[in-house]
Structure formats: C-alpha cells, structure tokens
Amino acid sequence: SHNLSSCRFYLHPELTKDLVGTHPPGAYSLVAVSVGYFLEDSLDMLCNQKLHQSWELLCHHSVVIVCFGIAVLLHQYVGFALVALLVEINSIFLHVRQILLMANLVHTACYRLNSVINLGTYVVFRIATLAWMTRWLFLNRQNVPPASYAVGTVGMALMTPMNIILFYRLVRSDFFK
After folding, report:
1. DSSP string of 18-59?
2. Name one GO biological process term (predicted).
3. What are residue 105's phi and psi, to 5 degrees?
4. Across all residues in the chain, what is the average pLDDT?
5. Mean per-residue pLDDT, 119-143
6. pLDDT digits over 48-73, tens only?
C-alpha cells in the first residue's frame, strides 16, 4: 500500500500545494490503513520478538502511529503523511535484504544488486524525504498549530538520526565488511 503514495501525488497534483487540508478519499484511506499496519506490526513485534531486538523499529512505529493518527483523526496533514509514506518505498529493499540474509544468500549477485538498490532508494526515499519534510515543517511553522508543530518536530528529531544510523550500519555491513 505504501507504493500508492507516489501515485497519489501524480493523480492529485493539488496535494503538492496543500499538505495540510487536501486529502482525496483514497489518500485518506491509505494513511488510515497505514496506521493499522503499523499498529499490527508493532503488536507482532511485541509478541514475537525480544525488546532489545526491536526497540528501534518500535520507536519508529510509535512515531508514525502518533503522527499518522493525528492526520486521520483531524482529517489534516494527510498530504504530509503521504510524503512520509514515500519513505516506506525503501522498506521493500530492506525487507528483501533481510530475506536474503535469512536465506544465507549474502554472497550472491542478487544480494549485491539489492544492496545497491537499497542504498539508492534509502538516500532518495528516506534521507531526502525526511530532509524535505523537516524543511517543509520549518518553513510552514507559522501555519501549523503549536501542538502539531511540536509533534512533527519531535517526530523528525527522532526519525532523522535513526535513519542516518541505519544508513551507516547498512553501508558498513554491505560494503565495508
């Protein structure tokens, strides 16, 4: 469902002008379903993994649930949430990487190709998107109510370092063993 985010911007270019109040029905549904996905995935991690294995992902999911939950409850910031969902495009390659690791296929051309695509999509869809979102939030601070601005700022302050650290780990693991 996360790949539908980029389609929404293509089909509804008005989203690029108003990330606060514009939300075609499909876009709103996508964000609402995403809240459900992140809730379910968090519950699954809590039930099936040790906390020390999943705390970073649980922190990520918690931030997303709060921010997207606000968008769903207020019917605002849906466009901003869609921008955030662009980050999840990279998750495809992170998950393929994990599957290849579990299948012990690290020393294959498929793993190497996925590593390159993973880092490329990581830079474009995670780092650049989070930087753009942080910039948008800063530039629009006078138009965003203080509570929403605080939530967005805390969310960006948590997500950005987490993603930079994960990027460092991926580069170190896949390219500098």
Report:
1. -TTT---HHHHHHHHHHHHHHHHHHHHHHHHS-HHHHHHHHH
2. plasma membrane organization
3. -110, 35
4. 89
5. 94
6. 999 888 899 999 999 999 999 999 99
Is-contact 15 27, C-beta < 8 A? yes
CA distance 176 to 155: 31
Q: Would you say 58 and 46 are in contact if contact means Cβ atoms under 8 Å apart?
A: yes
Q: What is the pLDDT of residue 170?
A: 96
Beta-carbon-side half-sphere exposure of residue 29 (alpha carbons within 13 Å): 6
> Quick check: 153 and 137 in contact, CB under 8 A?
yes
Domain boundaries, the chain: 26-176
Helices of type H across the chain: 4-11, 25-48, 51-74, 78-86, 91-102, 109-121, 128-139, 146-175
Tell me the angle at which helices 91-102 and 109-121 cross, rounded to the nearest 10 degrees: 150
What does pTM read for this prediction?
A: 0.83
Distances (CA, A) of 105 to 110, 155, 167: 8, 35, 21
**How far is residue 165 from each of residues 10, 123, 142, measured CA to CA in Å?**
31, 13, 31
Taking the CA atoms of 172, 44, 51 and 69 in sequence, report the sign of the dihedral they define.
Answer: positive
Neighbouring residues of 28: CB distance < 8 A, sequence distance ≥ 6: 72, 75, 78
